Amino acid sequence: MTVTNKTLRRLREHLRSYEGSTGKIYRGLLVLLHTRGSITIDDIYRQAKDTLVEEIDLNRGIGKRWDSDERDAVFSMVEHYSGRYLSPEDVDAVVLSATKSQRAQTIEDVSSMPGASFALLHQKVEEFCASREGIPQKDLLPEPTSVRVRMIRKLISDQLEYIGVARHFVSVCDLLPIMRNTIGPRGGLGKIGGKAAGVILAEKIIGEHLKTRKEEPAFEIATPETWFLRSDLFVDFVQQNDLMEYYDIKYKPIEEIKKAYPLIREVFKNGNFSTYIQQQLRELLEQIGEHPLIVRSSSLLEDNFGSAFCGKYQSIYVANQGRLEDRLQDLVGAIAEVYASTISPDPILYRSDRNLIDYDEQMGIMIQKVVGKKYGKYFLPSWAGVAFSRNEWRWTPRIKREDGLLRIVLGLGTRAVDRVGGDYPRMVPLGMPDLRPEVSADDVVRYSQKFVDVVDMEQNHFRTIPAREILGADEPPDLFRIISIRDHGMIQSPATRLINAPATSLVVTFDGLLNGPFPALMRELLQSLEDAYGWPVDMEFAYDGEKLYLLQCRPQGQRDESVEVKIPVNIPNKRKIFSASKYVQTGKVENIEYIIYIDPLDYDKLETLNSKISIGKVVGQLNHRLKGKRFILLGPGRWGSNDINLGVRVQYGDINHTLALIEMARSQGAYTPDVSFGTHFFQDLTEASIFYLPLYPDEEKNIFNEKFMRGAPNVLAALLPEAARQANTIHVIHVPGSTRGLFLHLYMTSDKDKALAFLGKEL
Amino acid sequence: MTTTEYNPFTVAQEQFDEAAEMLGLDEATRELLRWPMREFVVSLPVRMDDGSFKVFRGYRVQYNNSRGPTKGGLRWHPDETIDTVRALAAWMTWKTAVVDIPLGGAKGGVTCNPKELSRGEQERLARGYIRQVGAILGVTRDVPAPDVYTTPQIMAWMMDEFETIEKEAHPGVITGKPIPLGGSQGRGDATARGGMYVTREAAKRLEIDLNGGTAAVQGFGNAGQFGATLAEELLGLKVIAASDSRGGVQNPDGMDAKALVEHKLTTGRVEGFPGSKPITNEELLELDCTVLFPAALENAITAQNAPNIKARIICELANGPTTPKADKLLHEQGNFVIPDFLANAGGVTVSYFEQVQNTYNYYWPVEQVHERLDEKMTKAFHDVYDMYVREKVHPRLAAYIVAVSRVVEAVKLRGWV
User: Are B217 and B310 found together in one domain?
Assistant: First the structure.
């Protein structure tokens, strides 16, 4: 029979090629014959024994290992029946599966070798994946989870929570494109860090989710082309440039770090890589061409569950234009600057607060192609932003926390991610996307985006320009979905794509985009990510006019709000200090000993920039001085804003010891302050377990005991004699000292949206 | 925080009483004009986006229609009460009378928070309101317009619902519509423009040369922005200071008003305007200038700061910027106040023009709107100024006297009292 001959011929060819796998191949065929019902295993054994009957010593017993004769007899039986019952394709499948597991064995060995280099791992993964290429999923043997876990741990992240999620989604072969795009010292091994880990996992989760969808999503979803610099390259860089000495600085007092950092940054920036790495980067740039890049930190501590180092480390845009050598120098400079940010004051403080200071911080780097297109001399995405699976920015109970929130901007997403004073991203509660706290046309204009972040291709750097420059361009990006037209006191979405209004009448509202399928899609993606992570997440995204890109994804910090707090009743009015009834979180802050109070009206009266800056500085000193004491901060507007007129200029390090941060918004018509919710600053607070509460003292139902707040003795001069001059603006109240031994207690419940701070005995 | 109940309608009645006393009105006339003629309170069920139903409370108060069909805005506000609506309906009656347009006064509202309503919900609420109240509306009955938290879009939905019910075109049933649906040219800057015309006339009567004079604008929203540019364009004033809720800017040599508006629209604030120095809202009010335009909040000028006010003319583009005590002080000091319901009556006057154009189904070019507005405002100002001279009262009371006596004349002619 021709078929039989073919099958046997094929089998013999395979046996010649895979000599080391002969046993496995025969065993595979034996199992296949048995499962097909062609002949049972028992029959084959019996017949094999029959052929050897005279030579078998029956006293040896059954169940012992076969000797080589016996094995050969069984194998030739298997061969015989394979020729009779199996097709050449059957044989191919068995052989493939057998040789694959042979390879898996190799990758398993290598993945558990402590000293295996990245290059070796890469080679093994290439081989392993090549062996699986072209084989239908159903015929593939599942790869052992232990191999996945070891590979993820070696290459991506060793955070257990991360691995726990990633092992369900990221297969060994998913690592291959990453490994191919990874740069690091020869012979070394390092990870690609947290931020990179987040993107890879999110891409996989979303990919799996999209497979379950009946129809294609309204936007094609992608991730930007990305290259990774391993964490061992960072070590290499530090050693190569003799920068180790600077690392001890993390143990120095913060003031010293602040002072020394600018110098350190310069030293880093002037460092260089080995010729080998430089060559790799050069090749990378040749491959990319003149496309703008963003160099993002991806430290090993970054974006872990419960401690997102949001915005702590730098991300730097490089326009990547011009001569190759110039582009290389720019890229190296950007990488070095990101490296330097490992020892900048803010992250050091953040780490020391979380007992992470001794952790040997290593920094991976992600180099991404900036998502966008060229408009004139600027490069930018049509729109970009950050989406949160939990919405902490709710101005009405109709908005549900679990529906998620979007902060979206025209141009680069930096304006949505960071806090920028005086300019506003569109904030979108994803459950009710067209709801907004501004109603009148004037307010909509006032709280709309006025500036755009772009990469300037001529000047070769990141820039902020007035939005009108982009809106008035010849072919502005996605205008139909981004803008509304202001005309005769109305704000209206364009009725057609023919937009004739001048750029001065265009307002960035995203109404067109939000009326379409986009919000529902974002909500769906966030939900699938949150389900997979088992934790609230946020993700950064950008749209270039064609595809919706996922740039970053990480677990959102979240406070445990499961505790029930009851606001006490029957507190006498004179013991009530303040109350709030909007955007209240749940929690208790008891036994508050000090109140640092900056009166909004007094703050407003400060005329010079310097006098306002000095208030932030004194707050920082008080924060340091009162470390370990129980104190809260109350002050005008938006703390931490870059715009000093909106609130006291502080950084995380200036407020990190306070138990609660209270933003006082004096009522100004229809004005709803751009509260800190949803910003990096707010996330810092959440993760530091600092409560945040906005206070609206001008609303009638709210209490604000001005008599106590302004009348209680001010102990500022006693605590900080050098700040005595600021005592007119900064009131520091020692609560027991002003109340014959009482303390302040702050109770907050998000259920009822109520908070009350009152004086009472120490609890 | 104050806990005393402020009832705006009681305040409106007190203001009327003062004028009634001056005019020596009889008891029946006083009683008639102290209260609205008609009030409608309706329940408005709306299907919400989540499928549930919510019932809103709506109002329409037709205060007095002796001089013509009533006219007044529709407010959507969470703190809306029948008393607010009554007070504002009374003020509309005096406002239409002071500018002598053949309309009465009304006001309406819905207790709701538009910040919590999606676009679809707003539309269903707007249409629901017309289904309930439509029967008493119409260009010959009562004509609503946009007010707090209601927009031209909402007016468009309402007009459409009314026309759907009536099965014919009724563009004049509502004003403040988008221009493609019959809105009038010149509505955008009408309030500020009307303020300029009366300021110009005031200067003439007071013998003040405005050309090269100075202006300070407190509040830089819609009215303030137009106020600044028009003060420069129509009156030849130099804008030496302007402020918004974040702070102000000043330059004694004057600032380019258009550039300042541009700066405000680009940056969201006046602060940081090139060539200017910062100034607080309080300092701005006390600047030595020819005309002060309060265009921001209520109670900006109080008994405390009134003695420091140096402006020769105070043109109240905003509602209620001056407290009653401050009013008297300014009068005694010789600062001339053009009271809000005259100074900002340009808005309702152009609304009236919109109604007229809708009725004729013929639309005027913007120049014609300006010309007719000028005519109305100029006449209104001189009527008030003449009364101010004749009765030697402060200008606000003079304006009340002019308005109330016109309404009294109408009700008497009709034989109501």
Answer: yes
Q: Are A283 and A353 in contact (CB under 8 A)?
A: no
Distance of CA A616 to the CA centre of its chain: 29
Q: B57: number of CA atoms within 13 Å, CB side?
A: 9
Task: List the CATH number of the domain containing B217.
Answer: 3.40.50.720
Share of chain B above pLDDT 70, in %: 98
Provide φ and ψ at B368, rounded to 5°. -70, -35
- The percent of residues in chain A predicted with pLDDT above 70, rounded, is 87
The range of the structural domain enclosing residue B233 comes to 190-343
Most confident of A393-407, A676-690, B355-369: B355-369
Burial group, residue A369, by CB count within 10 angstroms (0-12, 13-18, 19+): middle
Residues 191-220 of B with CB under 8 A from A: none
Buried b (16+ CB within 10 A) or exposed e, A188-225: ebbbbbbbbbbbbbbbbbbeebeeeeeeebebebebbb
pLDDT value at residue A345: 78
Rounded distance between C-alpha atoms, residue A68 and residue A58, angstroms:
16
Q: Which CATH number fits domain A153-369: 3.30.1490.20, 3.40.190.10, 3.90.25.10, 2.40.30.170?
A: 3.30.1490.20
Phi and psi dihedrals of A238, rounded to 5?
Answer: -60, -45
Quick check: A308 pLDDT over 60?
no
B113 lies in the same domain as B211: no
Q: Are residues B45 and B124 in the same domain?
A: yes
What average pLDDT does the segment B382-403 reach? 95
Is the domain of B253 the same as that of B337?
A: yes
Q: Does B36 touch chain A if contact means CB atoms closer than 8 Å?
A: no
CA nearest A537: which of A389, A665, A685, A643?
A389
Domain boundary (B115, B140, B174) is at B174
DSSP A98-132: HHHHHHHHHHHHHHT-TT--HHHHHHHHHHHHHHH
Question: How many domains does the structure of chain B reveal?
Answer: 2
Report the CATH number that the domain containing residue B120 is assigned in CATH: 3.40.50.10860
The domain limits of chain A are: 2-105, 153-369, 373-555, 573-760
Which tens digit of pLDDT belongs to each residue from A157-203? 888 888 888 899 998 889 999 999 999 998 888 888 888 888 889 99
Q: Per the domain annotation, does B71 fall within a domain? A: yes
CA Rg value for chain A: 32
Question: Smallest CA–CA separation between B227 and chain A, in Å?
Answer: 15
Active-site residue numbers of B? 107
> Is A229 a residue whose pLDDT tops 90?
yes
Whether B224 and B160 map to the same domain: the answer is: no
Of chain A residues 381-400, which have a CB less than 8 A from chain B?
Answer: 395-396, 398
Token pair belonging to B162: 């009314």
Q: Quick one: B235 and B314 in the same domain? A: yes
Candidates A636, A614, A618; CA nearest to A719 is A618
**Residue B265 scores a pLDDT above 80:** no
Residue ending a domain, choose from B134, B150, B174: B174
Q: Would you say residue B374 lies in a domain?
A: no
Confidence of residue B6 (pLDDT cuts 50, 70, 90): low
Give me the CATH topology for the region A373-555. Answer: D-amino Acid Aminotransferase; Chain A, domain 1 (3.30.470)
Q: Report whether pLDDT(A307) > 70.
A: no
Residue A44, judged by CB atoms within 10 A of its CB (0-12, 13-18, 19+), counts as buried
To the nearest 10°, report the CA torsion of A62, A67, A71, A74.
Answer: -40
Cross-chain CB nearest to A395 (options B115, B118, B221) = B115
- Across all residues in chain A, what is the average pLDDT? 84
Disruptive mutation site among A393, A394, A395, A398 for chain B (greatest number of B CBs within 10 Å): A398
With respect to residue B353, please indicate whether it lies within any of the assigned structural domains.
Answer: no
In chain B, what residues touch A668 (CB-CB under 8 Å)?
245
Over residues A17-39, mean pLDDT: 85
